[in-house]
Amino acid sequence: MSVTDTSRTVKIAADLNRTPAPQHKDVVFDVKDVGVSYDGNLAVREVSLPIYSNEVTAIIGPSGCGKSTFIRVFNRMNDLIPGAKVHGTVLYHGEDLYGKDVDSVEVRKQIGMVFQKPNPFPKSIYDNVAFGPRVLGWRKGLEERVEQALRRAALWDEVKDRLKKNALGLSGGQQQRLCIARALATEPEVILMDEPASALDPIATTRIEDLMHELKRDYTILIVTHNMQQAARVADMTAFFSVDIAPEGDRTGILVEYDETSKIFTQPSDQRTEDYVTGRFG
């Protein structure tokens, strides 16, 4: 390992969440041999791992390794893509998430999602947060629900005097926290975040990372990120994905290693993981 590689690893290690792992972890998702194909072409294959309650789990890896495809497995967003098919089993509290009697709308109520680019509706701040509860018919106590969601997203104090203003007038970081509040308003158990800070400046990124630390007290969080320092700062567990390239050129995402974040960044078990976190490729 070169001096540059070593200094990079030390810098990442310094950012690691040092909170001791609990002796017993409750499993929210049990992923068994899961793959995703598009029109018969395998994008991700044979992923098996548990996702633990009230932790932040980061998914890292080079571009094209299927990180976003994989995270969409958990709230059945791939169902909305023509030609997409999920293979294997995803158990959510022991129940098959893809069982015949499982309502995908109900799944997305329990498992909210925040996307890479802030995507507030062209409505008022209030109406953005109230949108989900209204769709679900939750009319009672709507004002309190909106306020609570905005408080949990660390946005209430900044917008409480302009709730009727258009959400598009907010800054990029505020818009992303508004999207988090919109997800929280339907009372999910799990929050999926696909590169939630990649379009934000460093100050707004820090606010999002601080928010994740707060939210994991009440929610289970999965985050896709290209930023390894970010994974080191926010994640309890980290999954490293890479790309397997077939002789004919087909690219398939594979899970290389999954472990506590501190181990992934300082004592990885696989050489491919070490090469990635030290910057030798990716």
Task: Explain the overall architecture.
The chain has 282 residues and is α/β, with parallel strands linked by helices. It has a single domain, classed as Rossmann fold, CATH 3.40.50. It has 11 helices and 10 strands. The strands form 2 sheets. It has a 6-stranded mixed β-sheet. It has a 4-stranded antiparallel β-sheet with strand order 2-1-4-5, with no helix packed on it. Strand 9 and strand 10 form a beta hairpin. Helix 4 runs parallel beside helix 7. It starts with a helix and ends in a 5-residue tail after the last helix. About 2% of the residues have low confidence.
Helix content: 25-40%
Q: In angstroms, what separates the terminal alpha carbons?
A: 16 Å
The parts where pLDDT drops under 50 for at least 5 residues are: 17-22
- Report the C-alpha radius of gyration, rounded: 19 Å
CATH superfamily: P-loop containing nucleotide triphosphate hydrolases
Number of domains: 1
Structural class: alpha/beta
| Individual helix count | 11
Largest sheet: 6 strands, mixed
CATH top level class name: Alpha Beta
Q: Assign an overall shape.
A: globular
Would you count the extended β strands for me? Answer: 10
* CATH architectural name: 3-Layer(aba) Sandwich
CATH topology: Rossmann fold
Summarize model confidence as the mean pLDDT: 89
Query: What is the chain-wise order of helices and strands?
Result: HEEEHEEHEHHHHEHEHEEHH
Oligomer type: single chain
In the sheet with the most strands, the strands line up as 6-7-8-3-9-10
Tell me the β content. Answer: 25-35%
